[in-house]
Design a protein that fits this description.
CATH superfamily of the largest domain: FAD/NAD(P)-binding domain
Strand content: 25-35%
Largest sheet: 7 strands, mixed
Bound molecules: flavin-adenine dinucleotide, nicotinamide-adenine-dinucleotide
Helix content: 25-40%
Cofactor: FAD
Number of domains: 3
Keywords: FAD, Flavoprotein, NAD, Nucleotide-binding
CATH topology of the largest domain: FAD/NAD(P)-binding domain
Number of helices: 14
Structural class: alpha/beta
Pfam family, one: Pyr_redox_dim
Distance between the termini: 70 Å
Radius of gyration: 23 Å
CATH class of the largest domain: Alpha Beta
Shape: globular
Number of strands: 23
CATH architecture of the largest domain: 3-Layer(bba) Sandwich
Family: Belongs to the class-I pyridine nucleotide-disulfide oxidoreductase family.
GO molecular function, one term: nucleotide binding
Amino acid sequence: MPDSEQFDLVVLGSGSAGTKVATTCRKAGWSVAVVEARDFGGTCALRGCEPKKVFWTVAEATERARNLAPHGVAGGDALRLDWTAAQAFKHSFTDPVPENREAALRAAGIVPIHGQPRFLAPDALTVGERRLAARHVLIATGAAPAHLPIEGADLLATSDDFLLLDAMPESLVMVGGGYIAFECAHLAARAGARVTILQADDRPLAQFEPDLVARLLERTRGLGIEVALGCKASRIARQGAGFAVACENGREFQAALVVHGLGRSPSLQDLALEAGQVAVEKGRLSLDPYLRSTSNPRVFAAGDAAAQGPALTPVASHDAAVVARNMLEGCHTKPDYGVVPSAVFTIPPLASVGLTEAAARAANPDVEVRQGDMAGYQSVRRTGETAAAYKLLVAPGSGQILGAHLLGPEAPEVINVFAVAMRAGMTADALARMMTAYPTGGSNISSMLG
Ligand SMILES: Cc1cc2nc3c(=O)[nH]c(=O)nc-3n(C[C@H](O)[C@H](O)[C@H](O)COP(=O)(O)OP(=O)(O)OC[C@H]3O[C@@H](n4cnc5c(N)ncnc54)[C@H](O)[C@@H]3O)c2cc1C
Ligand SMILES: NC(=O)c1ccc[n+]([C@@H]2O[C@H](COP(=O)([O-])OP(=O)(O)OC[C@H]3O[C@@H](n4cnc5c(N)ncnc54)[C@H](O)[C@@H]3O)[C@@H](O)[C@H]2O)c1
């Protein structure tokens, strides 16, 4: 066995969480290595948020131009999303990431290491022939598509595969009805595919406000996407050049490609966690409130691998800030997942922060609900979009904003204003009185609260 390389911190995974903890601890003078099993850069930059948003931006621009064809975008009718060209555009964002991320780590004095890390002992790991001794270890290995325990599950393409398609197949089944299914389905339909979404129960996008999800479902079906509820996939098989998906309720669906949208679970396999005395319960790391392993106090976790908050990039960054602080200053800081804005990038997009009406009512049946349709608002009409709505939850008496839910063209930007107001503890009245640039999506807030 070669001599050990000694580090104050060995980070497993180079995504949003791993990179942030590594750079923060390095700035504090620690010696740091980052071990990455795939390309450096993580899911968000390479296989998630960023590439998806490139496709979304092109698809949304095409849709808007088509919607406005009768109102001055001459020739807009003929526009279509050219998936292959959009794919090349996407590559111009993702291709430089691994080299740039690795170079940035080196420039910061961090040692990037390629390979599969495995614990050898509570304070030691191997990566191939290298042996690393670690005062602290961060597990920031993210998440991967959840295992579906049915025949033919290995035939499912993943969201990674979808975002790498050079050409859109003529038909697609999305198995699952959450974020990935709706986002991929909306892109694929705009690129000309016949799309079906299979959702096991009758609650697609269950984290979001049901009334707005219902409005999005109507709009989704209006695009020609079939959304089959109560369809729990039970078997996938090859059929001709494509695939057939059978559901427990007896229905069967055929498509050229079948894509996994069934949820993701922490990537913990292959790390030899037992050798590191890192406890796992039901597929999740056993962590204390400071994101530290309950069984090995040298080891912390952050982001999707920690699976404490929602599996989102801002949560990974938040966890990273908490963990870096706890490592550097002692365990005093707990993560706070109280105000986490999030958006589903469909067209139109759906966005949310805070409690749904059901959750707010469970805590206080007298919660004030302010809701309405926004399709007639000028900011929506001028985009040609026909589906837009809001629902706001306000605490009776205190006027505190408990939750905000938006569907419409500018929802993902406007939701951030509600998140700021909630974080700052502003009342609904104070937010309604706030001046906003006009005319913008944000200037609708006072009408929504009025
Ligand atoms: C298709 C898709 C779209 C998404 N869109 C959004 C969005 O719009 N907004 C949003 O907020 N969130 C989005 N997410 C979620 C977001 O990408 C994740 O929450 C975020 O990337 C988590 O960051 P992380 O650092 O915890 O993990 P990751 O970014 O996944 O990083 C983990 C890293 O660890 C590496 N790794 C894995 N196993 C090992 C191992 N054994 N050894 C060493 N390294 C390993 C991986 O290769 C990866 O580089 C999306 C996710 C997907 C899949
Ligand atoms: N815009 C974003 O922020 C964004 C985009 C993509 C992914 N993500 C993150 O990644 C995570 C994973 O995304 P996802 O869409 O895979 O998961 P998800 O949890 O959002 O949705 C999974 C869906 O699959 C359904 N399902 C489960 N088993 C099924 C079965 N056998 N048959 C049919 N349906 C079944 C579930 O009921 C659920 O609706 C998300 O929860 C989110 O945290 C975020």
